């Protein structure tokens, strides 16, 4: 179901839409709501939504090492009652900036497990090039940063959330510096502040064009020194463990698959933070690393968490177009190589293949327009001219400046015969960032008790319909910190849940034999490509109602065929494998995007549809997705431990 709730209203008006995006007949006004949980007298947009939805439910086995070969702390027997079940005060799912920053704070109050799908450094944070936006210049102001954020977000942002993030951001940057993160400084000794699209001031703190990698390095070093934090690499989160407490859904931990041993490890915790990143791999070309398959969003949806604004998928305008390189890469990339927004912020100009500058015809801000505008401009050029990429030229700038500001980009391009100090860079849009996600209040809380969210997996109301450049790392830092105190309070009032066998335990499909499991993996990889193709063709930068409905039908058919194949081969509902479980999460997220897009009958920010090409002031509402009834739902929509046994 999809529900829209207006900001700033004492009444909560909700428009109920079924899972196919069709409006139901009943529309109601709710004028008084009573909550059992502690709440503030005044709610922000995000808090009102979160609290309201509580009453609107549908009924080591060895020591891992990091990339440098250093041993990462594993759980001792004092934290483990048996080898397959671990007990912690806090569980953090994800090892990007949000998860690590949160872990470092809550570790002062209890034991922390950081669960990460691959190596601990492999996260969207590590691939973030541009930087972190923050008001650190005397000529800049919080009000200016807020205004830029709200304009870029097409006025769908929650103003209170925007103010909190823009106000607290500078302190979060100073904390990183105190922890050892090294950012670029100018000749005057002050932080060098860059400017990117949509920003009215220079306010981007950066470490050349590898800012995310530097932040990740500093945080990981601090985590490795903390004796209360235990990192579990190659542990793929499968499903949240939930229970009902009256009308409340309570999160009590998570099941994971150790992808090296194929053992299911259960983590029982008092508090869970979901910081698992985005879902870029629902599309064929994305700047996201391979781990970004929407696992957190899908798990949260299955656990009856509220999802919001999934129609707003940000396509970065400038990913490296391998087809335009002098020397073609010998193998297909798992993720597109990002050409940071800062290249345009530093004076980079976009041309079509006829060397005609085109962005001024789309927006007076030209290359410095927000990402949704630039991506649509490039998309329009490619379709009109039947070309496969455009050119981004920074070669008119001094060679030394280019190499000092963009060493990573220069080195990558030079591998393929392209000197960016002399030649333009071939670029094309690629899926980059999910502005929607698990609905969060101002302290990272969700409608599921004990479950907090931060980073790209969360929808806090900051980004609205389009994320302003370099606001993502900022949001992750601010909300990771804001979630700390309520998490500690919840931890202190909770006791560890000991009956871990309450839930059926998933298991790897060993009994099927290698031939069948190999075939399942092969078929699943092909299905994944088909889903990505459907999403790019029908749910891309420019949409239409017909395309969206076609996508909805094709995705439903593809998922049904895939599930039928699995179960015919002997797969059971509680069986788990990396490829199959990623696939169910991709299906889940793709359906959430399509359902949300069908529900928005206007063009706003990243959601542009030719059937409703204009922004409608009356539709400036978030899109809210309630969890659906598990009855007759697909495998991707049900928690593993709630599966009926065949």
From TrEMBL:
PANTHER family: L-ASPARTATE OXIDASE, L-ASPARTATE OXIDASE, CHLOROPLASTIC. Keywords: FAD, Flavoprotein, Oxidoreductase, Pyridine nucleotide biosynthesis. It holds the Pfam family FAD_binding_2. Gene3D superfamilies: FAD/NAD(P)-binding domain, Fumarate reductase/succinate dehydrogenase flavoprotein-like, C-terminal domain, Succinate dehydrogenase/fumarate reductase flavoprotein, catalytic domain. It comes from Rhamnella rubrinervis. This is L-aspartate oxidase. GO terms for cellular component: chloroplast. It is found in: Plastid, Chloroplast. Its cofactor is FAD. Residues 528-614 form the Fumarate reductase/succinate dehydrogenase flavoprotein-like C-terminal domain. It is an enzyme of class 1 (oxidoreductase). Its EC number is 1.4.3.16. Transmembrane segments: none annotated. GO terms for molecular function: L-aspartate oxidase activity. It catalyses: L-aspartate + O2 = iminosuccinate + H2O2. Residues 89-473 form the FAD-dependent oxidoreductase 2 FAD-binding domain. Belongs to the FAD-dependent oxidoreductase 2 family. NadB subfamily. Pathway: Cofactor biosynthesis; NAD(+) biosynthesis; iminoaspartate from L-aspartate (oxidase route): step 1/1.
């Amino acid at each position: 179901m999809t529900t829209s709730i207006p900001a700033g209203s004492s009444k909560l008006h909700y428009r109920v839409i079924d899972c196919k995006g069709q409006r139901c007949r009943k529309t109601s006004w709710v004028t008084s709501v009573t909550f059992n949980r502690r709440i503030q007298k005044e709610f922000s947009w995000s808090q009102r939504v979160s609290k309201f939805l509580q009453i609107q439910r549908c009924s080591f086995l060895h020591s891992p090492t990091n990339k440098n070969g250093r041993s990462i702390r594993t759980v001792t027997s004092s934290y483990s009652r048996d080898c397959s079940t671990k007990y912690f005060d806090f569980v953090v799912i994800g090892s990007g900036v949000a998860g690590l920053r949160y872990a470092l704070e809550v570790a002062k109050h209890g034991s922390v497990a950081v669960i990460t799908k691959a190596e601990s450094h492999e996260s969207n944070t590590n691939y973030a090039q541009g930087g972190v936006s923050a008001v650190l210049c005397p000529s800049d102001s919080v009000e200016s940063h807020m205004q830029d954020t709200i304009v870029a977000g097409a006025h769908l942002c929650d103003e209170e959330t925007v103010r909190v993030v823009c106000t607290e951001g500078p302190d979060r940057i100073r904390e990183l510096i105190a922890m050892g993160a090294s950012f670029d400084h100018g000749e005057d000794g002050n932080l060098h502040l860059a400017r990117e699209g949509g920003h009215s001031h220079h306010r981007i703190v950066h470490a050349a064009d590898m800012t995310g990698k530097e932040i990740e390095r500093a945080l990981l070093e601090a985590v490795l020194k903390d004796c209360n934090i235990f990192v579990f690499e190659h542990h793929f989160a499968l499903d949240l463990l939930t229970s009902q407490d009256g009308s409340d859904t309570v999160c009590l931990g998570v099941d994971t698959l150790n992808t090296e041993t194929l053992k299911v490890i259960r983590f029982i915790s008092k508090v869970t933070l979901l910081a698992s990143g985005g879902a870029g791999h629902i599309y064929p070309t994305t700047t996201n690393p391979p781990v970004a398959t929407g696992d957190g969003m899908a798990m949260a949806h299955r656990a009856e968490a509220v999802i919001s604004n999934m129609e707003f998928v940000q396509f970065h305008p400038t990913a490296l177009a391998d087809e335009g390189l002098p020397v073609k890469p010998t193998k297909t990339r798992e993720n597109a190589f990002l050409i940071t927004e800062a290249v345009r912020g530093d004076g980079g100009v976009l041309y079509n293949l006829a060397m005609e500058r085109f962005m001024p015809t789309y927006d007076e801000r030209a290359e410095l327009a927000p990402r949704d505008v630039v991506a649509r401009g490039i998309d329009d050029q490619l379709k009109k001219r039947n070309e496969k990429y455009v050119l981004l030229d920074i070669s008119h700038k001094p060679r030394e400046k280019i190499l000092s500001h963009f060493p990573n980009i220069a080195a990558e391009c030079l591998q393929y015969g392209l000197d960016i100090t002399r030649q333009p860079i071939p670029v094309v849009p690629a899926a980059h960032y999910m502005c929607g996600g698990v609905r969060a209040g101002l302290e990272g809380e969700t409608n599921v008790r004990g479950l907090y969210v931060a980073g790209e997996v969360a929808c806090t109301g900051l980004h609205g319909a389009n994320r302003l450049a370099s606001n993502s790392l900022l949001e992750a830092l601010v909300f990771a910190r804001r979630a700390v105190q309520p998490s500690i309070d919840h931890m202190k009032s909770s006791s560890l849940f000991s009956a871990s066998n309450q839930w059926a335990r998933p298991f790897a499909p060993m009994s099927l034999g290698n031939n069948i499991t190999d075939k399942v993996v092969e078929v699943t990889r092909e299905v994944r490509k088909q889903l990505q193709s459907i999403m790019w063709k029908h749910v891309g930068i420019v949409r239409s109602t017909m395309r969206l409905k076609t996508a909805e039908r094709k995705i439903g058919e593809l998922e049904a065929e895939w599930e039928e194949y699995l179960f015919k081969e002997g797969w059971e509902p509680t069986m788990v494998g990396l490829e199959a479980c990623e696939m169910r999460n991709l299906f889940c997220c793709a359906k959430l995007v399509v359902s949300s897009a069908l529900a928005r009958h206007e063009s706003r920010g990243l959601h542009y549809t030719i059937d409703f090409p204009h922004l409608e002031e009356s539709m400036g509402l978030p899109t809210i997705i309630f969890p659906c009834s598990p009855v007759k739902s697909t495998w991707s929509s049900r928690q593993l431990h709630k599966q009926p046994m065949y």
